[in-house]
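JOB MANIFEST
job_type = single_chain_structure
chain_count = 1
residues = 280
[input]
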Amino acid sequence: MKTWFITGGTPGGFGPAYADVALERGDKVVLTARRPQLLDGWAGPHGDRVLVLPLDVTDTEQIREAVHAAEEHFGGIDVLVNNAGRGWYGSIEGTADTDARRSFELNFFSVTELLRAVLPGMRARRSGWIINMSSVAGLRGVPGFGYYSAAKFAIEGLTEVLRHEVAPFGINVLSVEPGAFRTRAYSSFADEPVAETVDDYLPFVESVRASMVDQNGRQPGDPYRGVRAVVNAIEQDTPPHRLVLGASGYDTVHSQLEGMLEELRRYETASRGADFPHLP
């Protein structure tokens, strides 16, 4: 029986899907949310197998308190799911600096703080799983979501290095890259006015927002099927390092990597010619 610590527990998202699948397996769950009262009805039937904690993942002190409470309650954390996050739309040039920094605080730096809080216990037990919820946008940037894409690219790099650093301690690390999934990720966009600061980009940014609003509730990805794919993957004898979720996400990443490989080969001579000449 494992104990899962899952961030981003807002109903309708990946967080509760992870929690439900873990409970189906007979595991215990710590589910965190900024508004934990929204989970009261969900938590009740599960009794002492569930602990719901308030957590704003951009608050370092709250992170430490929540991890300590989870370890005290269940005796340790076996699986950390870094799921909390969201996107803001806008151009690279015209996104307000406060929004750009807020995106990184939520989508990147919160992950680093959670890792620092949870890894000491995993290292002491010489076992554990870290699941970092990235995005297809972390492998191919999405125009109109530049800072979100940048933060997810950073998560990809962080996860790649972390995997090597913690492997000697029996800790595994997986990066998960969902495409468009039917969560509530797009639902708030209809109520958010465009805050673009450069008028030349307004038509483009407004079209991005309209597209997201139009897709809400019609995304092809099923969060529960996605989570079950993740759980099945980490149970393999040789688990993957990363897992793309969703057919459209797979096609997008496949096309991106094929294009990168083709371009790499096309400029191989230029790449290799940048070294100092070999001495005779």
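[summary]
The radius of gyration is 20 Å.
The chain has a mean pLDDT of 94.
exit_status = 0
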